[in-house]
Amino acid sequence: MKSTHSPRAIAPVGLFIAMAVVLAGCGPSQKEIQAQQAEAAALRAEASAERAEKAANNAMIAAQKAKAAADKAARSVEDATRELNKASDKLEQLRKWEAARMRTRARKKAAPQAKPSEAASATPSP
Fold it and tell me: pLDDT digits over 44-87, tens only?
């Protein structure tokens, strides 16, 4: 069986296709490549900026939470200090009261146990 296409007939078609590709500029030009690269770089930069913004927001939220925890701890310390001061004041008041009670007891023990009639006779008469 003989081929219907002769090699001489195929060669000009291939040449024609090659010339059409060259003339049509089938591949992208250097400027188009640079524009695509610049666009890709801009998209990467934008994505990077978005990630940085998200990280900054997360850091700000973490800082706010840390500040709230520190404020809560400070309030707890202040509350504990107030309670300690109240307890200290109450203890001091009890110490003073006990000291006064002991002084009163000591005076009563030191005073002679005189009867009212003897106490009246002990006073000098004029």
Answer: 999 999 999 999 999 999 999 999 999 999 999 999 999 999 99
DSSP result, the chain: ---SS-HHHHHHHHHHHHHHHHHHT-SPPHHHHHHHHHHHHHHHHHHHHHHHHHHHHHHHHHHHHHHHHHHHHHHHHHHHHHHHHHHHHHHHHHHHHHHHHHHHHHHHHHS----HHHHHHTSPP-
Model pTM score: 0.46
Q: What are phi and psi of 79, to 5 degrees?
A: -60, -45
Share of the chain above pLDDT 90, in %: 57
CA distance 56 to 87: 46
Q: Which of 10, 30, 7 is nearest to 18 (CA)?
A: 10
CA distance 48 to 55: 10
Domain residue spans of the chain: 29-109
